[in-house]
Design brief:
Helices cover 80% and strands 0% of the residues. By secondary structure, the chain is mostly helical. α11 packs antiparallel against α12. The two termini are 23 Å apart.
Length: 324
């Protein structure tokens, strides 16, 4: 069995496990009633928030790749949406699709673009942590599960940032260490890996430019506030008004869950995040599941519709690259 199929199988199994945990002892009658009475007008602002999220994410990419090339939001939008769609079809592979498409269009090395995604993750975690802390402190309480999730996000952010800074500050020693570690491998493989790492250093250079990092940080905050709005509106769609603390709890748990292999469409992962995060706020299991299904449908389907053509093209480009 190929590595890709193994990862897909693990994701499917974890998704099934999470779905079982989320729906254990579920009152199916209450869930059916909630789904039958969804307030679908809320779908309009959710879809609008999703579309703006795509544009914000593409705009942020402009600043991240500025040390490498100048590109417009319009140019970067198709690869970004294809990457999001790819993550829903095969979690974590969408980033490769986005990189392949952008690299082909902008004539940039894939390794350098992948490096910018590491910086992207640092600011994702940093902005999420800041939003979570502000909202939770204002709410005056933080459930143990959410506190754990916040710590995990903070640790991930610190680890990624430290790794990037060390690589930039001690570039040549890091490369020599990698070369020693790869000594048992063939010379061709060593040369190829080191070449990719040298190309990656150019992608990391954005982290040393404050004038680029300020808009990256602000756009990161905006994109997660848009997703937070989608969570909040999904709950309103099933007739429940919750505090921002409850919504950020869902968001934090969902992000932590998504660092693991996931089932297509993140089914199971999203349901578990909603039920576990909302339970301390008095939201019943059927209501949480109904809101999670609304959220799943209205965030996943637009990405698949808009990104499927780019995803196919990325697959063809990647296939040609591998055959060289």
């Amino acid at each position: 069995m190929s590595q890709r199929r193994i990862i897909l199988l693990i994701g499917a199994l974890l998704g099934a496990l999470f779905l079982h945990l989320a729906m254990h002892s579920l009152d199916w009658g209450a869930l059916s009633t909630k789904l039958a009475h969804v307030h679908w007008p809320y779908a309009i602002p959710i879809l609008l928030a999703v579309l703006i999220y795509f544009a914000v994410k593409a705009s942020r990419r402009r600043f991240l790749i500025r040390p490498l090339a100048t590109a417009s939001t319009r140019q970067l939008l198709p690869p970004v949406v294809a990457g999001i769609a790819g993550n829903y079809v095969f979690p974590h592979v969408g980033e490769i699709a986005r990189t392949v498409l952008a690299g082909k269009h902008l004539h940039l090395p894939v390794a350098a673009l992948l490096a910018t995604m590491v910086i992207e993750r640092v600011f994702d975690f940093l902005s999420l942590l800041l939003i979570g802390i502000v909202i939770m402190v204002q709410a005056g309480r933080m459930a143990p599960d959410i506190r754990t999730a916040a710590w995990a996000v903070g640790i991930l952010c610190a680890a990624l940032f430290t790794a990037v800074v060390v690589f930039l500050a001690y570039h040549e020693p890091c490369l020599r260490m990698v070369e020693r570690l790869l000594a048992p491998a063939s010379k061709h493989f060593r040369v190829r890996v080191l070449r990719q790492l040298r190309a990656a250093s150019a992608g990391f250079s954005a982290i040393a430019k404050p004038r680029l990092l300020i808009p990256v940080f602000l756009l990161s905050l905006l994109q997660w506030l848009l997703i937070l709005a989608c969570v909040e509106l999904s709950l309103h769609a099933v007739g429940v008004a919750v505090t921002l603390a409850a919504a950020i709890s869902v968001l934090l748990l969902n992000v932590i869950d998504l660092t693991l292999p996931a089932a297509p469409g993140h089914v199971g992962t999203v349901q578990l995040a909603f039920t576990v995060a909302l339970a301390p706020f008095g939201v019943s299991q059927p209501v949480a599941i109904a809101a999670s299904l609304v959220y799943n449908f209205l965030t996943v389907v637009p990405a698949l519709i808009l990104g499927v053509s780019g995803l196919r093209r990325a697959g063809m480009l990647l296939h040609r690259h591998l055959l060289r």
